[in-house]
Amino acid sequence: MYDYNDFDETFVRSRVDQFRHQVERRISGALTEDEFKPLRLMNGLYLQLHAYMLRVAIPYGSLNPQQMRQLAMIADRWDKGYGHFTTRQNIQYNWPKLTDVPDMLDALADVQMHAIQTSGNTIRNVTADHFAGAAADEVEDPRPTAELLRQWSTDHPEFQFLPRKFKLAVTGSEADRAVTKAHDIGIRIVKNDAGEVGYQVLVGGGLGRTPIVGQVLADFIPREDLLPYVEAAVSVYNTLGRRDNKYKARIKITSLENGLDTLRDKVEARFAQLKPLFTGVDQELFKHIQSTFVQPAFKQADTAPFQAAYDADPVFRSWVDTNIEQHREADYRIVTISIKKHGQTPGDATSDQMRLIADLAEQYGHDDIRISHEQNVILPHVHVADLPALYAALKPAGLGTANAGLISDIIACPGMDYCALATARAIPVAQQIATRFDELKLEHDIGPLKIKISGCINACGHHHLGHIGILGLDRAGVENYQITLGGDGGPDTVIGTRAGPGFAYDAIVPAIERLVLAYLELRTDEAESFLETYRRLGDGPFKAALYPESKANAA
C-alpha cells in the first residue's frame, strides 16, 4: 500500500497544528460556533445529537495492522472503546471531546491517517472495491488509481467549495463491488478492443431524496487522460452546479437539468483546455504509486487439514460457504469478517476486536486489511490452510458469524441514536430483524438477501439499493418506515420501488417477516434468490404479503 513521503507527512502535521489553534480559539470564545463550523468540517468533525463525531478517512478502505491498532487505541483513549465503520469505508468516533480532537488527529498522523475532506462540499474519501488486488475477476487492481485520485483531490484549490459534497468510486471488476453507478463520478477500469487498459467514466449517480443511477459520460479514457478528464468534469460541475438550493446541488441534478449530452460537451471542451497542462508528471506519479502496491509473497502449504476440518465441522463449513470468496491464487481465499453478529450494531467494532483483527492480519493475512462499503472487515489474502485457525480465533470474539450477504448482514445508518439529521431509528430495526431471523433459523435457507436501512431521506444506509430497503421517516412526530423492493447495487444498478404505505416502529419487523416468508413460498427452488423471484413475479405477491388487510378488503 502507499506510504507517505516527506511532503505528505508535513502537510498532514501542518493541518493538525492549524486545527489545534482553531480549537483553542473556539474554546476561548474567539470563534463563535458559526465561525468554527466550516473549520471543523474541513477536518471531519461533526456536531451530532449528543456529542461531536470525528470521521476518519480510510482511503479506498485499506489498512495495515499498525493502523488498525492505532484506531483501537484512539477508541480506548478518547472515545468509548469502539468505532463505527461506514458505507464510505471510513471509521467514525461518536463521543470525542472537542479538546481531545487535535490529539486524536496527531495520533492518526502517527500512522499516516487523517480526517481531511471527510466532510464539507469537497471531494470526499475515494472508495474502491474491497476485494481489490485479490479478486480473480478484476482487470487491474483499482487501488493505485484510487490513490492517484486521492492525492490529486486532497486540498485541490479549485474544489474546496463545490456546490455540494462529491463522491468518487473506482472498480476494476465488472461485478462492481464499489457501486460506481451510485456515485457522483464512478470509474471502471476496462480494456478496449485493442487490449489497452483505460477507464469508463460514469456520472450523475447518487441516492438521497432524488435517487438516480449514473450514466456513461465516456466509454473509454486512456490512462494518461484520466486526471485531466476527471478534473474537467468536476470543474464543469463547479461552474454549472446549483448553489441556490442544497437539495438540487449534486451533479446528478446538474446532469438532469442540463442534459447528459450538454454536460459531456462542456466536459470535453474543458478537457481540451486542461490536457496540455498535464505534462506527464501525473503518469510518473502513477507509476510510483503502482510500485507501492505489490502482491504478497504467497506461500505454499498443505490444504488437506483444511479439507478435513471442512468435512468434519458443519459450523466451520457454514462459515466457509458463506464468508469466503475465490482468490486469484488457487490456494488462497478472500475472507469477510462479519461485524454484524446478530443483535449487534451494524458496523461497530470494539477496540479489542480491532486489535484481534490486526493480529490475525499479521499472522494469516499478509498484513492487509480492508473495510467494505457494506460495513464489514475483509482479509483479502488468506491461505486455505489457515482458515480453520483463523475461524477458531474469530468465533470467541464475536467475529465468526456466518452471515455475509445474508439477511442479517444489514447496512444501517446511525439514525436517531446519533445523527442530528435523522428522523427515525435505524440501528434498533436492524438489530431486531437480525435477531428475529436468527430465532427462526431461516437465514441460510433464505440465501442472498440485502437489507439496507436509512433513518432519513438522505439515504446514508443506501436503502434505495437494498433488495429490501427500509426508510425511516417522521410522520407527525411518529416514526414511520417505508419499504422499497427490488433495489440492487451491482453492475446493473436498480433503484428499489416503494411498496406502499409505511409501517409503525413496532410493525416493521413483522412486515419484513411476512415479506420474506412469502418469498420462501413463491420461489421456484432454493437456488432462486429473493431478487430473482421479485424480478420474475413483480411486486404484486409481495405487496399482498405486506398488506394482507388490503387483500381481505378486496375479497
What is the helix fraction of residues, given as a range?
25-40%
Total helical elements:
19
The largest sheet, given as strand count, sense and whether it forms a barrel, is:
6 strands, mixed
Tell me the number of strands. 21
Rg for CA atoms: 23 Å
Strand fraction equals 15-25%
The general outline is globular
Taking pLDDT < 50 over at least 5 consecutive residues as the criterion, the unreliable ranges are none
Provide a descriptive summary of the structure in words.
- With 555 residues, this protein is α+β, with helices and mostly antiparallel strands.
- Helix content is 38%, strand content 17%.
- It is built from 19 helices and 21 strands.
- Helix 3 runs antiparallel to helix 12 (351-364) and helix 14 crosses helix 16.
- The longest helix is centred in the N-terminal third of the chain and has 23 residues, at 6-28.
- It starts with 5 loop residues before the first helix and ends with a helix.
Relevant terms:
555 residues; alpha+beta; six-stranded mixed sheet
Question: Mind sketching the topology for me?
Answer:
Elements: H1 6-28, H2 33-41, E1 45-47, E2 52-56, E3 62-63, H3 65-78, E4 82-85, E5 91-93, H4 101-109, E6 127-128, H5 143-153, E7 168-171, E8 185-191, E9 197-203, E10 215-222, H6 226-240, H7 251-258, H8 260-274, H9 281-292, H10 304-312, H11 314-323, E11 324-326, E12 332-337, E13 348-350, H12 351-364, E14 369-371, E15 377-383, H13 387-394, E16 411-412, H14 427-440, H15 443-446, E17 451-454, E18 468-475, E19 478-485, E20 497-498, E21 503-504, H16 508-522, H17 530-537, H18 540-546, H19 548-554
Parallel strand pairs: 6-7, 7-8, 16-17, 17-18
Antiparallel strand pairs: 1-2, 2-5, 3-14, 4-5, 4-13, 8-9, 9-10, 11-12, 12-15, 14-15, 18-19, 19-20, 19-21
Helix pairs in contact: 1-2, 1-4, 3-4, 3-12, 5-9, 6-8, 7-8, 10-11, 12-13, 14-16, 16-18
